[in-house]
Amino acid sequence: MYPSLLRLSPILLLAVAACAEPAGPDTAATLNFGRGVALHVQGAGAVDLTAAGAGLADFQLVAHWKADGTVGGHFRQSRSTPSGIVDFAGQVTCVTTDPAFPGRARIGGVVTENNSTHPGFLTPNHEVGEDVWFRVQDGSEAADGLDRSTTYGFKPTLVNTSAEYCALPFNGLPWWNPASIFPLEHGTIRVKQ
Hints:
Blueprint: H1 2-20, H2 25-32, E1 37-48, E2 56-66, E3 71-81, E4 84-97, E5 104-114, E6 131-137, E7 148-149, H3 162-166, E8 182-192
């Protein structure tokens, strides 16, 4: 009985390993947390931009920073406006958090897709390869318990590059302007260190 179990165990191990293999970037980033990942930010849902007259923006994001200094992840945000669709996807190039306020993160990256039809988002500053940035807040760390996100920023608003955005000082505006970050209508954002 034991010899047959020993013969089966390599097959069972392969089957278990195949089932545990990450299915995509979201799963891979989640599974890697705790194995060299020092900061992990993820979320999905809809940001309520109605206070800014922009309706709801569907979003998803995964960003991680490893202890060895490497950064990875992706993001997407899409919304419909009377002037057309604003829809961007990107690859994460930097992610930082505010040491004084756990749960706050800034994410910078490069545009990998611009599927917008809104003329204001079809300029050279919005092309594939250009820098883009935004910030999020994990509500489990906030006094009001609300998860929040901003719209995407592009040059020349505030800074000109994602690296400059991630390097902004953490002590005050414009790094964390509460008037430009909006609660989620549904969904969640988690920032884990």
